[in-house]
Amino acid sequence: MGNGTSRLYSALAKTLNSSAASQHPEYLVSPDPEHLEPIDPKELLEECRAVLHTRPPRFQRDFVDLRTDCPSSHPPIRVMQWNILAQALGEGKDNFVQCPVEALKWEERKCLILEEILAYQPDILCLQEVDHYFDTFQPLLSRLGYQGTFFPKPWSPCLDVEHNNGPDGCALFFLQNRFKLVNSANIRLTAMTLKTNQVAIAQTLECKESSRQFCIAVTHLKARTGWERFRSAQGCDLLQNLQNITQGAKIPLIVCGDFNAEPTEEVYKHFASSSLNLNSAYKLLSADGQSEPPYTTWKIRTSGECRHTLDYIWYSKHALSVRSALDLLTEEQIGPNRLPSFNYPSDHLSLVCDFSFNEEPDGLL
Ligand SMILES: NC(=O)C1=CN([C@@H]2O[C@H](COP(=O)(O)OP(=O)(O)OC[C@H]3O[C@@H](n4cnc5c(N)ncnc54)[C@H](OP(=O)(O)O)[C@@H]3O)[C@@H](O)[C@H]2O)C=CC1
Ligand SMILES: [Mg+2]
User: Fold this and answer.
1) Which of 16, 61, 69, 210 has a Cα at 20 to 30 A from 87?
2) Total structural domains within the chain
3) pLDDT per residue as tens digits for the range 34-82
4) DSSP assignment of 281-340
5) What is the CATH number of the domain that holds 192?
């Protein structure tokens, strides 16, 4: 076995075997990463690239500078929002008819996912459709200095798929050397007072540099057309929970999610007009700062081509500024067979933003 390969198995192989996933209780804050030997991100990136040596080169995406005039005395906070496509759904249920089966092989697709994370080095990761938390992302990201939290769907569609790796759910990771966890809440979303199959995680973090606190939340709302009212009710429930957690918007807030809703839907309008004073960060990439990108997910299923804007990063527009945002892949980069592909591991694009606190939040948050 070549040196690279053996190193690969030294870093990537120190992950729990997949059977461990089903032995874990529903919700578990990961063990203290101090007790896991750290990995050098450059080494892990090299090892991932060794696995991906037969794949086409990574697409280049650039950060768009959105700096406003308010300078910040502290380093920005980089947040990544990403529905990484559950392996069981990608292989067993999602029917991406133009995606070759071998492009979804987990041993390579996981390295594409890790490569994207290592390329942009977010301080905070908000993920949906995580069905390899315990055997892959938690052990590896812990060794990169992240503390992780996982909250699976009560009844994940992954469990219907033969040879699944356990339920999918939302995961939230933050760098331990930058933030201290003040509070963590797992939220099973309701709709019209009924418990639903969708969840969220909301955590209050304190910046070690500035002692400023903020709330970061991740969610994944009910998919499919015909469920618009259901998503709207889930969104209202999440907003109510966040009102309480931020003590009525006293704490700045960032909410990441696959909302499974176009900007025309009611749930989007609830977030855009909430008393939490939120703005959608990716609107700032548009010329007038008022329009969402044309797509955040683009796939071809048996039902046809689906190009939608469903993923968002909402933030407290008075207390926080967006300093930059990662541009999306172009249609040419995505290619005619759309996503996922040999080039990109998910049907959803990652969204990445750099935030800073406004020194003195003007007025209410
Ligand atoms: N809800 C419950 O209480 C119960 C649920 N179940 C099981 O759970 C499943 C529903 O899970 P739930 O998560 O609530 O469902 P969702 O409708 O939210 O979708 C589940 C997953 O399917 C993907 N998806 C969306 N559209 C399609 C499509 N057209 N074809 C294939 N996949 C698609 C979504 O991906 P994306 O978000 O990226 O679009 C999402 O990850 C049922 O199929 C059943 O297996 C069974 C009994 C009870
Ligand atoms: Mg999906």
Assistant:
1) 61
2) 1
3) 556 899 999 999 999 999 999 988 899 999 999 867 677 789 999 999 9
4) GGGGGSTTS----S-SEEEEETTEEEEE--EEEEEETTTEEEEEEEPPPPHHHH-TT-SS
5) 3.60.10.10
Tell me the two tokens of residue 284: 């700032």
- Indicate whether residue 155 lines ligand 1 (CB < 6 A): yes
Residue 98 structural domain: 78-357
Residue nearest to atom 19 of ligand 1 (CA): 223
Total residue count of the chain as it appears in this document: 365
Residue 64 lies in a domain: no
Residue 179 gets the label, from left (phi > 0), alpha (psi -120 to 50) or beta, of: beta
pLDDT tens-digit series, residues 118-142: 999 999 999 999 999 999 999 999 9
Between the CA of 158 and the centroid of ligand 1 the distance, in Å, is 9
45 belongs to a structural domain: no
How far, in Å, CA of 11 to CA of 19, rounded?
19
Q: Let me know if residue 140 belongs to a domain.
A: yes
User: Could you tell me the two tokens for 45?
Assistant: 């990136």
Whole-prediction pTM: 0.92
pLDDT of residue 332: 97
